Structures are given as structure tokens and as C-alpha cells.
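Loading example: each entry is read as three labelled lines plus one structure line.
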Amino acid sequence: MLAYVLRRAAYGVLVVLGVLLLLFVLFFQIASPDDVARRALGEKALPEVIEQWKANHGYDRPLWPWQDFSNNMLFEHYRSMLTFDFGRSDADDVVITERLRQGVGPSLALTLPLFVAGISVGIVLSLFVAFFRETYIDRVGVWLCVLGMSVSILLYIMGGQLVIAQWLRWFPISGFDPDPSVVGRFLALPLVIAVLSGVGGDVRFYRTVFLEETNRDYVRTARAKGAGEIRIMARHVLRNALIPILTRVVVAIPFLFMGSLLLESFFGIPGLGSITVDAINGNDFSTLRTMVFIGALLFIVGQIATDVSYALVDPRVRFS
Amino acid sequence: MEPHVISNVVVVLVLLAGFGIAAFVRRNRMWNDALRELWRRRPVAIVVVAIYAGVALLDSAAWMGGVESGEDVVAAHEAKSVLDRLFLGTQEKSYSAPFADAEFYGGADLAHPGSHPFGTDILGRDVLYLTLKGARVALLIGGLTSLIAIPLALLLGVSAGYFGGRLDDAVFFLISTLASIPGLLLLIALIMVMGQSTFSVCIALGVTSWVGLSRVTRGETLKLRELDYVKAARALGVSQLRILVRHILPNLMHLVIITFVLMFSGLVLSEAILSWLGIGVDGSWGQMIDQARDELTRSPIIWWNILASGTALFGLLLAVNFVGDALRDILDPRTLRDQP
Amino acid sequence: MDAWVRGWAAALGLAVAACSNNPYPDADTSRKILYTNYNEAPRTLDPATAYTTSAHAITGNVYDTLLEYHYLKRPYELIPGLAEEVPRAEPQPDGSVVYRFRLRPDLLYQDDPAFALGGEGRSTRQIVAADVAHELMRIGDPAVNSPVIEPFSNIVGFRAFSQSLAERREADPAFAAKPPVEQYAGVGGIEGVRVRGERELEIVLANPYPQILYWFAMPFTTPVPWEAVAYYDGEEGRPHFSDRPVASGPFVLEEYHKQARMVLEANPNWYGVRHPEWQAPGATYPSEGAEGDAEAGLLDPALMGRPLPFLERIEFRREKESIPAFQKFLQGYYDASGIIRESFDTVIREDRLSPEMEELGVRLEKSVIPAVYYLGFNMDDPVVGRAGGERARKLRQAMSLAIDAEEWLRLFTNGRGVPAQSLLPPGLYGYDADYENPYRRVDLERARALLAEAGFPDGIDPQTGKPLQLTFDTPDTSAQGKLRYSFYVNAWRKLGIDVRLEATNYNQFQEKVRNGAYQIFPWGWVADYPDPENFYFLLWSEMARTRNQGPNTANFSDPGFDERFLAMKARENDPERLRLIQEMRAILEEERPWIELFHPEDYALFHGWLRGVKPAGISNPTSKYRDLAPALRAEERAAWNQPVIWPAFALAFLAVAVALPGVVTFFRERQ
């Protein structure tokens, strides 16, 4: 088992290194440090100011190890990313780690409840639909799911703000304040909208999983033994469907991060997604590449965790 | 070459390909059955998709000349598509409501009263016309992206699965690496570094979407490689290339088609998000929605713009999603279940 | 992090219990806190480099200047701020001009740990004349990269100071490693900036430049303590000086979270708070104003003569989108607001407030912003520029005749703005309301005739036989931005000119501008100070963009214009100056490097509980004059924000009604 975990982790590290190489090519080879400096300082900047700026940001070295082995940007890029020492923002010289620290709180305040609420609403609804399979409830349910999946998230957000915040005045239309007495007000609306926009795809998927499980032998046996339908659903089907559900949930972790890109921007929540959008609009490459790296890292770690938990459940995996 | 000539060539190629596929399907029993079944299950959705495709083709076939030069003098010197010609001279000055006789603000008389079923936008352009033009953009995004993604995915996935060894390791590593970067972020990074244009958006979408298909084809090839008839062919000394082309690729086609159809809605939705970030494709529905965003809070509310573009986007995706679901059930109920 | 999770859990419970759209803690309702919003956090708050409206909203209130503008009087009038009096120009026999500033006694900075550098245990110190000199040297320091070097170059020895600083740094690494203050002292400072004791400062200009005084009313010339620059160096967890202002003004930057909010608190060390008995003009609400101020409630006896500031706190909340911000204003959660285009028709009817707004007690304040928006031609371009000679001039004239700025204003800003006939906005010396520019009306007939004379009959380029192709480079890739610029493109298409809209993001746009690879561009300029020189210098050849990196993006260069400009620059307002301005205007009228579009008009809205608000125009430190009534505000907010709950019940009922029959049948069949 330990060998498997180590092997899996080693491969994860390899993938992280690969991601970093890709980022390096994108952000240093294709977009050169001179471009970045001029974008940050404005075109009025004198050449010596640009040189000084590049030196301050560590962008004044040759790019590749074969140009200068002991002092090059590639190694520096790996070093800074892997030690989480992301340096300063290209746009306004703020220490990126500091900015991330400020952004993590609001982001988690939104995504954690969203994660929990999304999964539980999805599972409850799909159990409901699967329970009434082959009735009109099931058919209407699936229809609604496909309808929901075909609407752009932009429309969900705009509609939600218009109806719930502006017409009904339930919650603030946007904004954020970490003060515990008000933070809930701000999170409620993005939460409702995000759950609503994601629920279609989730329910459709979970429903298929549940239906497949209900057709299996052990369910028939349980039924033959006289177990109630609700009991079967809750005890047997739900438990056995957990693995495919888990897979989907892990795949959704970076999507969570992405989804909050839009939500945070529209609702003015100063989290990581909002920082990313600002970085895009402000051509802040160092912040952007940090965010891409962190997104990838989260995903890789999540994937290793799932694989390892599979292996714990199913010994065959370890040897494949 | 002039852009409209390229566009016309594409139209001809698309039509030829359509006929070719139709002829092939007629002879091939499996595909013939599958498509019949699809038609039986989802006639409305198929008709809807066909209508969108038809509109897109109408907007792609363009030629010079024959245009009355009205206010816009330059228009007479530009190639105009069939769709453009249908809507020539429908220009107004500014907003007007659907079927209105007068301008929305100020109430000045319209040049063409009662002739705009979806009203006009702030610059007085017919919203129905803009919406129909969006069909071409949406299909262009889907089409161009798959032209980039599918060959790449097949090439890498199949060769990795079939030849195995070092190549497989390398391809698998590449797949893992690309797949672990959140798609939208990679997309944004690529477009920012390459600069914004329709083509770079499609390249970025292609690069970010080949991974899923590649993984599926690789897995399926691994299975096919071990099948008896493939082994037999190899034992008989049939060349590798011939095995790939005759035995492996045809057995992957259904996966490719299903993945493509299912991927399509994701691509168009991603483009909408890119448009909101200001790096989308000109003339797309995403861009129309973004333009109409602020109009919702105008008072009195300007709703026709967002309704038209939102509905057009929704209708296409709904139809495609239904077709995709049905196709998956018919062709392959198992393999692709775990694909999001 | 733990606090986050706990806070969230507690809050979720609370939120369900109290469904409310109040974005602020309930405890703050009764305090004198002004709420306002911002879109993009300023890139820098360093007074030597901050040059945007969003930055000046902070620096203007945190950094005090030697001079200020009178809050109410128009035309703008300078009053003393930190200085005791507005100095007079003292011409010297050698042609130079001297200005003598005298600082008030007993001025203090805010309490700040940086001052411990100047002596153990110190938390503040006196503001002295040397601090102003220090800031002027920082402007001259090439490493600071200040955008306003040019006007200060009129000071004797200013350029020389920059140069010797750069040379010493280049030549001597040990010198370059020293703290900046020591470097400044090392090269002997600026010759024309003389510090006489703690409170006296002399500025010597090499030539007459009357506008210099306006620069002493801008945050660029605020006193900056060397301790702050040395201490806030961005090392060891300390913020950078550009993010950590050390206040000399009425407010202190208490919280600075760029992504979310910026909070200003009243500064207890400010001279207005410590010495109300001085009745200093910069720290007392004025008792006289301009015409109309009495009617607008600005000369309220409850405000007049009272010591400033009135507010205890100002909260800037970030709002990326304009619609939510405006909605919150309507809900009473922001105290003042501009009017966004989308809501204009709700707010304004027939050029006055709509009845709905009057019912809310909202007031409206209109003012023309001293700014000009224009479309420029790159005069270095072979087709539209200088090299095209007479043909290009006629082309520019024709294109100018096709643009209907009034229609554009109607479509995109609800008519808020004055169509521009020349580059000078109303209210500035030399503005002539009766002047009509023959090329700034719409006349397609004449435009076509000019186009034919230019050699492009019906827009056809004889070389290609097709419509003349030009590019229009814009810095805005947003969908809405493209719509706006399409208007101009469509106008030119009526002449048969095929103008391609090239929307690039701002940085790529700057890149194009730097390389001179552009033909037509949109741009705007907001006045730094109320003087025509601040507009005409935008076309001075010394300011050319591609050659000298100046703000003359059109790269316009005309010897006759330059000669008149220099003469005008050195004069006070007199008939000769007016004549020069009119002659320059005539040159621009004929040459058409710009198509002048409009001077924007600002419609500011504010709630009835806010008092003492006058549109700022070019003046920065205005928050100190504002006052508000928290009790009235709390009352109105409560009345306006009752949630509508019934749809929630209706929706739940509908869902049950749809599902119930199915559930019932299902279980009946099972049994």
C-alpha cells in the first residue's frame, strides 16, 4: 500500500513539474519580461527604470539553463513556485502571497458552503427523482435538468441579481464583509445562484448512477427480503454509489475554483477568483501564473487523494 | 485570399462532406440503424440543429456586388452573405421595441416600422439579424475547435494506446499535465499570451478540450489492441498503419462523435464566459448577452436584446444536449458515462 | 482561517433568521460614516506618482497641500492650505521668478511607527518646509518615475538635479545603495528650492510660469517625511510607501484592502482638529460661495464657519459593476452616486429629477467637467498625417464633418455633455461659447466634396480601386466598448471610408502607440488645473508621443502653433494671451489633428441626509466639507428595504403541487 501511495505521489510531483514548465513557456518565453515591465510601468518609463524594475522582480536573468546554468529564470521560476514564494505582482508590486492570504478567506467562505450545499442538494434531488423512476416526476425532472444545463451561467447570475436582490430585496445585490453579523447576507445570493446553475448536471449524473445501482442483484435481494424501498435507497444504493460520486466531486474541485471566478467578480467578493479576474484585466502576469499554478496544484492533490482512497477500498487498483 | 472566398470554399466542403457522410451511412448498417433510431427518438431536436446549421450556411455563402448603396457607402464594396442580403436596409437610428413603429426613446418614426420582430439595438441594428448571424459564430467556434482538437486527440490517443511503451508514457504525462490545469484558467492564459482573435480563441479551446477525448480513445485503443481479430491481423503480418486505419479507427468513431457533440455545448458556454471577460469572439451570442447586460436595468427595461441572444444560445444548446444524450444511449451506453 | 469558518457558520444561522439586504454591520447605522464606492483600486498612493482620479480620492484627503481651491467659489480661486498665505510672484532682474511659501506653525503628521526612525519612541513630528523640498526632489528622482517632471522643470536646477542623481548612481554603486534622502543631499538638492528654517520655502523659477501655483494645490507637492519613505520599503512585512500614506491631511488611511475596501478615519493630529481657533480657510466651512450655492443649500448656517472635518469615517467599498452600485444608492446604502446610463430615464425626466427620485429626497447637482474627449489622428502616419500634405488635411477635414457628437451623446450618455467646438471646455479662460468650428458640424455633402478634392472620390482609394482603408485603434475590448466605437466607424462608412475597428486591450494599445503604429485613436483629457495651457500643451510638439513620450498622442507638430503656445504659457490672463489662444484655435481648426467630440457633464446624485456637497471639478480634498444626518438615513433605509417574501412560499407551493400527485399515485400503486 505504502509503495502505491509513494508511486502515485511521485507521479503527482512529476505532473506538477510539467505544469510549471508549461507555465514557464507561456509566461516567459511567449510573453517576454520586457513586455511585462513596460506594461507595468507605462510607456513613459526610461530604459534604466525598466532595467531596475526587472531586477527588482528577478526578471533580468537569461531564460534557459543552457544560457547560464547557475543564474537563469527557469530554475528561479521553479524555486519560487515550489517554495510558495511568489514574489511581487507585476501590476502594483504587492506581495502575491499576501494577496492570496487576503483572498483565501472570502473564497473559502463562499466555496465551502457551496461545495456542501451543491452536493447535498444534488444527491437529495437525484435520490428523489430516482426513487420515482419511470413516473412523470422522473421525466419532468430530467427535462428540467437538461433545460438548466443549457443556460449560460451569465444568465443565471444576471437573472438572480435582478429578481432576488433588486425586485424582492432579500439580500444585498453584491458586496462582502467578513464581519460575522453580516457575512451570511452577502453569501446567500451567490450560493443560491451557484447551486441552481449546477444542479441540473449533477442531478442528471447522480440519477444515472443511482438507477444503475438499483438494477443490481444485491438490491433485488434486499427487496426480496422485504426491505422497504426508502431503506434500500438510503442504506444500499447511496452507499454503493459513493465511488462514482466521489470521482465527480474531485473533478469538480478546480471547477469550483473557476465557478467562483465569475461569481466573485459579479458579487464583489474579494476572493481568489476576483483576484484572478483583476489580474486578467490588469495584465498582471505574475499573479495570473500563480493562480493557474495553485489551481493545478489543488487539482493534482485532490486527484492523488481520490486515487489513494480508491486503493484503500479496492485492492485491485494498487496493482494495475 | 479574400475572406468571403475562403468562407465559400468552406461551405462547399461542408456540403460535400455532408453528402459523403450520407452516402457512407446509407451503406453502413450500424450507422444507418443508429441514425434511424436517433431520428425516431429526437426528431424535434434534430430539426432544430439542422435549422441552426442552415442559417449558419446561409450566412457563410457570400459574394460581391448587387447591393444598393444606401447610407452605408462602403457596404456596396463588400461581400455580403445570403443572410446579409435578406436584412439589407433594415438599419434604424437606435433602440426600438419588437414590431414597434417608433423609436423607443424619443419616439421618432422608424424607417421601417413594424418590421423588426426582435426590435433593434442601440445602434439601430435589427436584433433578429444579429441573432441569426450568431449561429455562424457558434458553429464556427464548435467546428474550428473540433478540427483542431479531434485530429490531435486521435493521433496522440490512438498511437499511445496502440504502441504503448515510452510513447504511451509521454502522451499520458502530457494528458495528465494539461488535464490538471483548470480549463478556464488555461484558456485565459493562452488567449492572453497569444492575443485576442477568433482564431486564437479556437486554438485555445482546442488545446484545452482535446485532452478528454484523447484519454477516452487511448483507453479504448488499449482494449481494441487485445481483441482477437486485431491480434490475428498482426500475426498475419498486416502493416501497423493498415491495422490502425482498418480496425482501430472505425471502432473509435462513435466515441469521437459522441464526445464532440457533448463537448459542443461546453465550448459555446465557455465562449460566453470569455466574452464577458472581454476576450471572446466578435458577433457571438456571448458578446450580445454581455452587451445587453446593462440594458436589463434600463427603465423602461430593454429586454428584447438579451431575450433574443439568450434564447438562441439556449435553443441550440438544448437541442444539442438532447441529441448528444440520445446518441450516447444508442451508440455507447457504458464507456462514456463518467465523462462530465 | 478558523475565524472564517466559525464566522460563516454563525452567520448562516443569522442570515436565515434575519433576511436583510443591509450590507453594513447594524452597529454602524448611527455613526457619521460616509459610504461611497470605487471600481479599481489605485495602482499607487505615492503622491509623487499617483495621477488618477481614483488615487486622488485617497491622496487628496490624506495628504494636505500648501495651497487649495476655495470649495464653493467659481471660477476656481486658490486659498492657503498648509501655507499661511498664497504667495505672489516676485520677478527678479535676471528674468527668474521667486515664490515664498511660509508654513503654519505646529503642524503634525499622523501617528505612525515610521517616525521612530527619527528618534527612539517618537510617533509623530512637525511638518517642516524641508519635507516639501524632499517631495520635490522625489519628483525629480528618475527612479521614482513621476509623471509630472515637465512642469517642475521650470524650477532652476531641477533637470540638473535629476541628471546628476542619475550620473552619480551610474558611476558609484556605493552611492546608489544609500537611502534616497542621503543621495539627494549628496548631489546638493535642487538649486531653485531653498529651505529657510523650519517654515520657509523659496521656489525659484528660471522663467515666468504662473501656473506653478496650481501644482502646489495638487497632492504631488505635499510634504512627505523622509522617515515614511525609508521605513515603508516593502521589506520584512512592512508595506510599500505606495500603499501606506502617512497623513498630513484631515483623514488617515485606516484600512487598505484593495480588493474589497478602503477606510479613511478623521485624523486627530490634523491642524484643523488641534487648532480650530485659527479659523484657517482650509479647515473651516466657507461662508461665501458662488452663484446658486445658497439655493443648493450649500450656504447653510448650520455648516458655515464650523471647523472641519464633519465625518468620522469614510468607507470606500469596491463595486466592479456599475448596476449593483447604483441599486445600492437607490436602497440608501451609498450616500452619493453618479448616474449610470442605464438608469438615466428612471432618474431624470426632461432634464430634472423624476418625481420618484424627488419622493426619495434625492438631490441632483450638474456640472461640466473640465475635460475634452476627442478622436485623434496620428500625424506621423503617411496616409492621414503630415506626410500626406494637403490631401491628408482634406481627408481629416472630411472625416471631422461626418461625426455627430451630439447624436453620440444622445445614444450613449443620454445627452450628458456639451458637444465640443474646440479643445477648451467651458469655464476656462479663452473658452468662447459663441465660437463655431466650421468642421465640427455634420455636413456630408461638403465632406464628400473635400474627400473628392483629397483624391478619394466616394471614398475610393485610386491605388486599390476599393474604399480607402484606415484603422481605428481603441483601448477597449469590452462588448460595450465596441458598440460605442462602432458609431464612429458607421459614420465614416457613410463617406465610403472603410475604417476597421481594432480593439486591443489597454497595454497592447500602449504598445502600438509607442511604436507609432496607429492611425486614428480615441482619447480624453481631464484638466489638472483651470488654465488653457493645460489643454493646449497636449498639441505642443515637445510633448509628442512617439518621439518624446509626451501626452501629444496625435504627434502634432506645427512651428506657428509652438511659438504661440510658448508665448501664451508665460503670460497671465490678458488680451494678448486671449489673442494667442484664438490664433492657436484657428490653426487647429484648419489642421484637424483632433476631431473634438464633447466636454462631459457630471450629474451627481445625493441623498437628502448628505449636506455640503458641491461637484469637485478639479479640486481634491473635498470630503472634509461633507456632513450627514445618520438618524434620518437609518429611517429612510428601513422604509425602503422591506423584503418581498411571498414568492418564496409561492414557489414552494408550486413544487409540492406538481410533485404531490405523482408521489400519491406511486405509493397507492405500490400498496
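Chain B has a mean pLDDT of 85.
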